[in-house]
Amino acid sequence: MAGRPPVPEVIWARPERAGRGPKPAFSRADIAAAAVRIADAEGLDAVSMRKVAAELGCGTMSLYNYVPRKEDLYELMLDAVSGGYDLPDKPSGDWRADMMALAHQARAMMHRHTWVPRLMSPVYGFSPNVLAYMEYTLSILDGLDARFGEKMELIAMVNGVVTTYTANEIATAERSRSLPWTEEQEHAARTNYLISQIMTGKYPRLAAGFAEDSGPIDLEGVFDRALGRVLDSFER
After folding, report:
1. How many CB atoms sit inside 10 A of residue 127's CB?
2. What b/e sequence results for 207-232 when a residue is b if at least 16 CB atoms lie within 10 Å of its CB, and e otherwise?
3. How far apart are CA 119 and CA 77, in angstroms?
4. What pLDDT does 4 receive?
5. 154: exposed, middle or buried (C-beta count within 10 Å: 0-12, 13-18, 19+)?
6. What gap in Å lies between CA 146 and CA 87, rounded to an integer?
């Protein structure tokens, strides 16, 4: 296939354009933006080289001259949305508060681009915008008494909490939209069933627990507490 390298190659190490010849018709930013528009509108599975080429108004085969593999296209997409972080000129000095703020930004970004959790992987971790994000995050942790490896571990754990939590929120919302009844009706039916089972007396611990706290669950509070416990574990 045209443009496909015979050996492993990182898209960022590949020149965007050759030193000679005509100026390319499209930039990587153009290609990434087109792919992101498709994914946002139709989901990640709808993204294909053919669709991106059609969005740009070019032939599918010519697109491979810019992006050799679909995996490269995913990298361009993740880099594009990672450029949306609002990174201050310098951290506030409160590393916990700054990490929490970044986590909330990441969660909001994933809700804007619901396909992102599916692509979160170390394979897509070395693009320009992601590296800028990592450098800023490490600057937040300058005041933390920890080795580099521990700081990277902390960043990975925070990202893991955010990705897992947000992916579950997205999946729940998508399931609710697919139901032939309202979310409230679904919740009521499941709650009534749960109450009927607890009333049998077979589940005394659940009965005691729900008697103590019957909800509703504070999902925002759960998110912050989960992150807080991760951050707590790295404080000396």
Report:
1. 21
2. beeeeeeeeeeeeeeebeeebeebbe
3. 10
4. 54
5. buried
6. 23
Please give the Cα distance from 160 to 153 (Å, whole number).
10
Torsion of Cα atoms, 219 then 234 then 130 then 37, to 10°: -10
Residue pointed to by tokens 């394979």: 123
Distance of CA 120 to the CA centre of its chain: 6
- Cα distance between residue 152 and residue 168, in whole Å: 24
Structural domains present in the chain? 11-82 (1.10.10.60), 95-232 (1.10.357.10)
Cis amide linkage into residue 88, ω under 30° from 0 = no
Q: Which of 46, 35, 108, 37 is nearest to 75 (CA)?
A: 35
Nearest CA among 200, 95, 124, 109 for reference residue 163: 109
Question: pLDDT per position in the chain (236 positions), as tens?
Answer: 444 556 677 888 887 765 554 566 889 999 999 999 999 999 999 999 999 999 999 888 888 888 888 999 999 999 999 999 999 999 999 999 999 999 999 999 999 999 999 998 766 668 999 999 999 999 999 989 999 999 999 999 999 999 999 999 999 888 878 878 887 888 888 889 989 999 999 999 999 988 887 776 777 889 999 999 999 999 87
